[in-house]
C-alpha cells in the first residue's frame, strides 16, 4: 500500500499531460475507423495521432528504455541553450544575486488575500480559478456584466490599490462595450440568463 | 517570350515596390505603424510580456482591418518590442523579452555604473540602425527570394512544414522527442472540423461548434497570452520607483559609431540567423554577443559594462525581424513565437505564405518590408524621446496587466467566429501551454502544428495526388528538392546524436 502511495506521489503534471496526449492520440486514430471517414480525411490525423501516441509513450517510459534510445528520447540537444550557457558562460553567473547590489531596487508586492489568510497556494492557481469562473459566468450571463466584477475582484485579491482596480474595471468594461458597439458582438447576452441582453 | 512581355515582367516588382511604399506611407497605415511601435516598446519593456503576447492579443482586433495595415501593425509591435525589451534589461536586469536576455549581461552593469542613458541610447541606435539596414537588404534580396520560392511545389511545402518543426525542436529547450510530440499534437488538433479535401466533419462528436475546428488565432492567444499571464502571476516583485536613469544620450549614440565593425557584424549575424527557420532573436542575440566577446576578448570587459556587449545583441535583434520575415513569408515557417503569431495574422487575413505573396500580392510584401524600414526610423525618434522616462515602464504592476489580458483574450477569441469553443480553447490551451513550458515542451512547435496543419495536410494530399498515392514522392531522386529537404530533416533530427558518435569513430580510426 505504501509502495503504491509512494509511486502515486511521483506522478507529476507531465505524466498527466502525456497520458492526455496518449488518450487523444488514440481517439484521433480510432475515431476515423469507427466513423468510417473517407481516406483523404483519415490518413493525416491518424498519422499524427500515431506519432503523438508513440512519442508520448516513449517519453512516459523513458527511464526503462535501453541506452541509445533513452538518449534520443530524453536528452536535450538545444543549439540555443549551448550558445547561451557555454559560449558566454552566463550559466556561471547567478542573475538573482544582483538583486542586492544596490541598483535593482525592487519592492516586494503586498501579499495577496489567500496568503494573508494563511493559504499557501500558488498565485497561478488563483489566476486560473479567477479566469475559469470569469469565463463560465461570462458565457452564462454575458461578459459585459461579469467583466467589471472580475477585474475589480482580481485586482483587489492581489492588493492593487482599490481606486486603480475601479479604474481598470471601468476600462475593461469599456473595451467589452466597444466590442458590442463596433464589432456587434453579443457580449451583453448570456447563454443561460439575460439571453436577450440589456442593450 | 516577346520583348514587351519581358519588360512587363521586369517592371512588376518595381511597381509592386512603389505600391508598397505608397501604402506604407499612406494614412491611416502609418498611424497603425506608429501605434504598433509604441505598444511594442511598452509591451516589450514589461518583463514577462513581450511581443508574442502583445501580438496575440491584438490579432483578433485586426479582423476589421485590411490585410496590409493589419500585418504592418503586427510587425510594428514585433519591431517595437525588440527594442522595448532592452529597457527593462538595462534598468532592472529583467529582460522584457527573451531576446533581450543577452543585453542584461553588459547593459545592467553599465546602468549600475551610472550610464543608464548611454546604455539605452546604444541599444536604441544599434537596434534601429541595423534594423534599418536589414530592411533595405530585405528589399534588395527579395527578387532572388521570389525565384527560390517559385521552385517549391506541394511536396516541398509539406516537407518544409515538417522541417520547420524539426528545426524548432533542436533550437528549443527539451529533448527532440518532446518537440516532435508537441508538433504532431498541434498537427493533430488542427484536423478537428470539416476536412480540407473531402468536406467530411472530423472529431466534431455531433457538435456544430466544432465544425470550424479550433481557430488557430484562439490557440495563439491561449498559448502566448494566457499561458504567459499564468507565468506572470507568480512574479512577486515590481521595480521600485527610484530606479535611476543617468548618463548621456549623445555619448551613447557616439559609442555605436565608434564600433562600426561590431555593429555591422551583429546586424549580419542577426539577419542570417533570423532567416534560418526555427531560430529567433534569442539565438541571434546570444550568438552575436558570444562572437563579440570572443573577437574582442583582448580589450573587452564583457560582463562588467562593455558597450560592445550591448551593441552586439541589440544590433542583432532588429535585423532578426527582417531575417525572420524571409522564411515566414516565403515558406510559412516562423522562427519564433512572434513570427508564429504574424503567420497567424497572414493566414487569418486570407493570405497564403509562398508564391502568392511574391507574385500577385507582392505589393503587400513590399509594404511590410517598407514598414519595417520606416519603423526603425520611428524607433530611433521614439526611443531617444522616451529614454529619460524609460524607468516608468518598469514600474507597471503586473497584477493590473493580467486581468486586462485575460479579458482581451476571451473576448478577442470569441469575436473571431462568435464561437464559445474558441474562447474556451484559450483557457484550455493556456493551461496546457503553461505546463508545456514548465516541462520544456516546445510551445512554438505546437502552435506551428496548429497554424500550419491545414496547409501541411493539403500539400500532403496534393503530393499524393500527383504521385498517385506513392509516398516515395517525398524522397524520390527525381524530386531533388524534396529529397534534399527530407535528408535535411533526417540530419536535423538525428545529427545531434550521430555527430558525436561519428566523430568518435573518425578519431578512433586515426
Can you characterise this structure?
- The complex is a heterodimer of chains A (199) and B (510).
- By secondary structure, chain A is an all-alpha fold.
- Chain A has two domains: 2-74, no CATH class; 113-182, no CATH class.
- Chain A is built from nine helices and one strand.
- Chain A has helices spanning 2-9, 13-34, 39-60, 67-74, 79-87, 113-116, 123-141, 143-157, 162-182, and one strand spanning 106-108.
- Chain A is flat and about 60 Å long.
- The termini of chain A are far apart.
- The model of chain A is unreliable at 86-104 (pLDDT under 50).
- Mean pLDDT of chain B is 83; it is low at 1-11.
- Chain B has two domains: 16-166 and 240-417, no CATH class; 476-510, no CATH class.
- The longest helix of chain B is centred in the N-terminal third of the chain and has 34 residues, at 116-149.
- The radius of gyration of chain B is 23 Å and the shape is globular.
- Chain B is mostly helical and 510 residues long.
- Chain B has a two-stranded antiparallel ribbon.
- In chain B, helix 3 runs parallel beside helix 14 (337-348), helix 5 (101-112) runs antiparallel to helix 6 and helix 14 (337-348) packs across helix 20 (443-466).
- The termini of chain B are far apart.
- The chains are: A mainly alpha (199), B mainly alpha (510).
- Chains A and B meet through helix 2, helix 3, helix 4, helix 5 and strand 1 of A and helix 5, helix 8, helix 9, strand 3 and helix 12 of B.
Amino acid at each position: 500500500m505504501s509502495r503504491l502511495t509512494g509511486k502515486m506521489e511521483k506522478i507529476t503534471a507531465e505524466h498527466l499531460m502525456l497520458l492526455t496526449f496518449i488518450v487523444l492520440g488514440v481517439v484521433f486514430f480510432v475515431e476515423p475507423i469507427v466513423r468510417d471517414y473517407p481516406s483523404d480525411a483519415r490518413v493525416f490525423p491518424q498519422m499524427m495521432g500515431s506519432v503523438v501516441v508513440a512519442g508520448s509513450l516513449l517519453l512516459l517510459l523513458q527511464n526503462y528504455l535501453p541506452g541509445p534510445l533513452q538518449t534520443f528520447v530524453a536528452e536535450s540537444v538545444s543549439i540555443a541553450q549551448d550558445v547561451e550557457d557555454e559560449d558566454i558562460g552566463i550559466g556561471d553567473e547567478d542573475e538573482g544575486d544582483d538583486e542586492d547590489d544596490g541598483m535593482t531596487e525592487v519592492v516586494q508586492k503586498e501579499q495577496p488575500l489567500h496568503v494573508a489568510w494563511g493559504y499557501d497556494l500558488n498565485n497561478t492557481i488563483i489566476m486560473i480559478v479567477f479566469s475559469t469562473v470569469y469565463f463560465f459566468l461570462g458565457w452564462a450571463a454575458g461578459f459585459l456584466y461579469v467583466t467589471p466584477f472580475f477585474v475589480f475582484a482580481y485586482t483587489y485579491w492581489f492588493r492593487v490599490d482599490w481606486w486603480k482596480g475601479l479604474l481598470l474595471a471601468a476600462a475593461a468594461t469599456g473595451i467589452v462595450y466597444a466590442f458590442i458597439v463596433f464589432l456587434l458582438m453579443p457580449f451583453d447576452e448570456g447563454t443561460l440568463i439575460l439571453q436577450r441582453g440589456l442593450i | 517570350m516577346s520583348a514587351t512581355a519581358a519588360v512587363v515582367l521586369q517592371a512588376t516588382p518595381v511597381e509592386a515596390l512603389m505600391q508598397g511604399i505608397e501604402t506604407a506611407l499612406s494614412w491611416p497605415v502609418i498611424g497603425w505603424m506608429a501605434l504598433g511601435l509604441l505598444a511594442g516598446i511598452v509591451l516589450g519593456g514589461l518583463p514577462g510580456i513581450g511581443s508574442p503576447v502583445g501580438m496575440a492579443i491584438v490579432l483578433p482586433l485586426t479582423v476589421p482591418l485590411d490585410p496590409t495595415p493589419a500585418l504592418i501593425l503586427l510587425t510594428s509591435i514585433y519591431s517595437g518590442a525588440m527594442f522595448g525589451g532592452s529597457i527593462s534589461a538595462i534598468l532592472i536586469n529583467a529582460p522584457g523579452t527573451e531576446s533581450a536576455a543577452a543585453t542584461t549581461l553588459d547593459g545592467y552593469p553599465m546602468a549600475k555604473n551610472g550610464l543608464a542613458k548611454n546604455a539605452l541610447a546604444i541599444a536604441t541606435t544599434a537596434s534601429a540602425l541595423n534594423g534599418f539596414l536589414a530592411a533595405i537588404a530585405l528589399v534588395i534580396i527579395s527578387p532572388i527570394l521570389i525565384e527560390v520560392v517559385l521552385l517549391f511545389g506541394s511536396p516541398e511545402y509539406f516537407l518544409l512544414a515538417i522541417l520547420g518543426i524539426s528545426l524548432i525542436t533542436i533550437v528549443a529547450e527539451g529533448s527532440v522527442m518532446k518537440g516532435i510530440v508537441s508538433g504532431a499534437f498541434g498537427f493533430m488538433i488542427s484536423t478537428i472540423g470539416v476536412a480540407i479535401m473531402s468536406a467530411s466533419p472530423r472529431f466534431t462528436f455531433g457538435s456544430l461548434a466544432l465544425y470550424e475546428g479550433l481557430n488557430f488565432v484562439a490557440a495563439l492567444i491561449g498559448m502566448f497570452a494566457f499561458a504567459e499571464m499564468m507565468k506572470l502571476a507568480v512574479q512577486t516583485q515590481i521595480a521600485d520607483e527610484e530606479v535611476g536613469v543617468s548618463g548621456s544620450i549623445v555619448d551613447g549614440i557616439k559609442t555605436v559609431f565608434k564600433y562600426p565593425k561590431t555593429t555591422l557584424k551583429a546586424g549580419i549575424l542577426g539577419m542570417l540567423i533570423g532567416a534560418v527557420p526555427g531560430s529567433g532573436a534569442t539565438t541571434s542575440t546570444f550568438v552575436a554577443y558570444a562572437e563579440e566577446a570572443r573577437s574582442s576578448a583582448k580589450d573587452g570587459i564583457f560582463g562588467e559594462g562593455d558597450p560592445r556587449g550591448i551593441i552586439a545583441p541589440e544590433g542583432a535583434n532588429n535585423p532578426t525581424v527582417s531575417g525572420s520575415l524571409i522564411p515566414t513569408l516565403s515558406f510559412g515557417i516562423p522562427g519564433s513565437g512572434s513570427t508564429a503569431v504574424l503567420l497567424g495574422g497572414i493566414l487569418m487575413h486570407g493570405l497564403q505564405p509562398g508564391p502568392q505573396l511574391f507574385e500577385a500580392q507582392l505589393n503587400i510584401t513590399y509594404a511590410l518590408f517598407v514598414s519595417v524600414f520606416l519603423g526603425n526610423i520611428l524607433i530611433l525618434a521614439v526611443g531617444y524621446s522616451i529614454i529619460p522616462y524609460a524607468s516608468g515602464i518598469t514600474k507597471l504592476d503586473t497584477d493590473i496587466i493580467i486581468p486586462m489580458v485575460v479579458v482581451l483574450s476571451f473576448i478577442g477569441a470569441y469575436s473571431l467566429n462568435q464561437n464559445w469553443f474558441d474562447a474556451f480553447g484559450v483557457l484550455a490551451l493556456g493551461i496546457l501551454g503553461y505546463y508545456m513550458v514548465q516541462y520544456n515542451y516546445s510551445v512554438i512547435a505546437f502552435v506551428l502544428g496548429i497554424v500550419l496543419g491545414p496547409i501541411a495536410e493539403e500539400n500532403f494530399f496534393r503530393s499524393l495526388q500527383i504521385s498517385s498515392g506513392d509516398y516515395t514522392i517525398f524522397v524520390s531522386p527525381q524530386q531533388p528538392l524534396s529529397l534534399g529537404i527530407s535528408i535535411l530533416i533526417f540530419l536535423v533530427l538525428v545529427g545531434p546524436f550521430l555527430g558525436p558518435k561519428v566523430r568518435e569513430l573518425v578519431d578512433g580510426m586515426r
